[in-house]
Amino acid sequence: MNNISETVQAYSKKASKLNEVIVRMVFDSYGVDKYESHNESTNYLLRLLKYGEPTENETEVGLPPHEDMSFITILCQNHVNGLEIKTKDGDWIGFELTSPSSFIVMASDALTVWSIDSVRSCTHRVVMSGKATRYTAGLFSFSSKILHVPEKLIDQQHPLKYKPLDHVDYVDYFFSKHLGPRPDCRYKAYCGI
Ligand SMILES: O=C(O)CCC(=O)C(=O)O
Ligand SMILES: [Fe+2]
Prior knowledge:
This protein has helices at about 5-30, 35-40, 110-115, 165-175, 185-190, and strands at about 40-50, 60-65, 70-75, 85, 90-95, 105, 125-130, 135-145, 145, 165. It is an alpha+beta fold. 2-oxoglutaric acid binds near residues 47, 49, 75, 124 and 138.
């Protein structure tokens, strides 16, 4: 009989393989060949979320706007939509996932640092409006090593803007050490030059 931890384990394993493929595609597209060592030093966090259907008096239930601190995030949801992404112009756009085997892949903070801002950490939120419960499984990938911007990506048009990112300490810093107000941009505050 399958229990929840076995299911979560099996799902994480499969989703982490998808993560590896996506990272490889990103590295390939920049002509950077270090994806194997990156993938080998990747740790994962799986978060399972349940959003209850809003009651009559509630309008804005869900998750407030934020960026994830991971390298990338892979989301899988049930049939209840609600995720919204902020565009460069500041508009919010929703997603209609039609297939249960669809995934949403979002760039997160560490990818922005790695790519010197060419891939932007995606600002997103969850707004619940329908009459059903939303379930999400989010797989967040983190580097267990210090993340360096590949030399290949640094040139006159793209000068280095970030110090090497200690990804584990980055997360730890904003979850347990930094007790003041949250800066506008966490990665710039943490490792911006
Ligand atoms: O539930 C979702 O679709 C988004 C979850 C999310 O943004 C998060 O857990 O960081
Ligand atoms: Fe998120």
